[in-house]
Amino acid sequence: MTTKTARVADLVRNMVHDGRLGAGDPLPSTRTLAGELGVARGTVTAAYEQLDGEGYLVLRHGAVPRVAATLAGAPRATDRPVRAERPPPARAAHVVDLQPGVPNVATISDRDRRAAWRHALAVPVAPRYPDPTGEPALRGQVATQLALSRGFAPDPRRVVVTAGTAEAISLVVEALARHGRPPRVAVENPGYRAGRRAVVSAGGVLAPVPVTDHGLDLDALRTAQAHAPLDAVMVTPSHQYPLGGALPVARRLELLRWAAAERVLVIEDDYDSEFRHRGSPLPALATLDEHGVVVHVGSFSKVLDPSLRCGYLVLPSGTGGAPDGGTAAAEAILAARTGRGATVASVVQHALAHLMSTGALRRHVARCRRDYRDRRRLVAEAFAGLPGVRVRALDGGLHAVLELSTTPARAVVERLGGRGVQVADLQDYVVEGSGLRLDGLVLGYAPPPVAALRDALRTIRAEITATG
User: Fold this and answer.
1) DSSP string covering 113-133, please?
2) Which residues contact residue 157 at a Cβ distance below 8 angstroms, ignoring those fewer than 6 apart?
């Protein structure tokens, strides 16, 4: 956000908080306010978009910008008493949900959203069952997007649409189970809980592997392989979930060479690579894969809306130095997909394809990046210098981890719940029975209005200090 944009946004915020603007009140058009303030119209537009994302304003195409009708603490200026004769009553209890894994679903343009659904509903309905691998329009757009953002350009026929990341993982494990024995899958510890559940529900066996500050511990992975042969390893190399480490390029290449030599499939969960807040994005494992060992998994849940339940996987390349170039794994995954049939409605797929082909998704991601960077800064500032707290996972994504060295996390989580702030316990991400013990909080900073996020962060800091 530029300095001028920040000043315009601060002006509006202050007018809301001191009562000059109340809930539901109209604001000047961007052109009018720009003329009054002597700034470019684009500066006011950017400030309004920022305030819309924070929950201060409601922007609707063709309508007057207004203060959010549900904004806490912003009664209409005409309704405010001139003088308070007694302290105002306490606010009604409300919950600020900082459970991780949910994006800010309010940032997508209403105009773009409606256009996508209109387009999807106008697509003629074919008199047949849908292709279980997905609609060609969406598969083609995913392939194009990966070429632009992740550095590899798969044939659209290698893209398979899934009902989110968990289903993609379960399809891979189901394919591996065709060997006639329960597949053994190495998983990060701590790591993605829904991914572990997907492995187990598809008949797999978990092999927990510890992580370092830079992601999966490859030495520990070799030890797990020596203990009992692995069929696959599931990794989040670009932003380890939940601790946030990024696997360096040299270690990525080492992992791929090892997987090819040991004939182990690599499931790359690229869950929030669109949101890199510091440093350059690292290449996806699939970009570096010369052996045909990587199944690349992506999702729209962290970008748009988890309720869409839509993701995808990219089959192994089918070329390279692996014994079969990934062909056998690809064929087994396709067989599993065909056996289950399509799981994502065609209308959802066509809507997503329209958002991608028109550039609406790209614009949405750019707005989210700006918004999330500001929220990340608030989190970093809220806990700076707090003894016994290490803030992690802020290089990218939508969440942060507060490692606690002197405070029992479970007690903090419970006390915060009583005060209307919901966060996750880091211990819940540890593989059960592995013996690992972690004290920390995991919090998502994307969904709530910024004003509510600020209040919640102050509450968390106060509870950590009081409980320690």
Assistant:
1) HHHHHHHHHHSPPPSSPPPTT
2) 139
Residue in 303, 355, 297 with CA at minimum distance from that of residue 137: 355
The pTM (predicted TM-score) of the whole model is 0.79
- pLDDT tens track of the chain, all 468 residues? 567 787 788 788 877 776 778 888 888 888 888 877 878 888 888 888 888 777 788 887 778 888 887 554 444 434 433 333 334 434 435 789 999 989 988 888 889 999 999 999 999 988 888 999 999 999 999 999 999 889 899 999 999 999 999 999 999 999 998 767 899 999 999 999 999 999 999 999 999 999 999 999 999 999 999 999 999 999 999 999 999 999 999 999 999 999 999 999 999 999 878 787 776 678 899 999 999 999 999 999 989 989 999 999 999 986 444 445 568 899 999 999 999 999 999 999 999 999 999 999 999 999 999 999 999 999 999 999 999 999 999 988 899 999 999 889 999 999 999 999 999 999 999 999 999 999 999 999 999 999 999 999 999 999 999 876
The amino acid at 78: T
Whole-number Å distance between alpha carbons of 395 and 305: 22
Pairing of β 389-392 and β 399-404: antiparallel
In the sheet that holds 294-299, the strands lie side by side as 159-162, 311-314, 294-299, 265-269, 232-235, 184-189, 205-212, 215-216
Q: How many CB atoms lie within 10 A of CB 343?
A: 17
The count of other CB atoms within 10 Å of the CB of residue 319 is 13
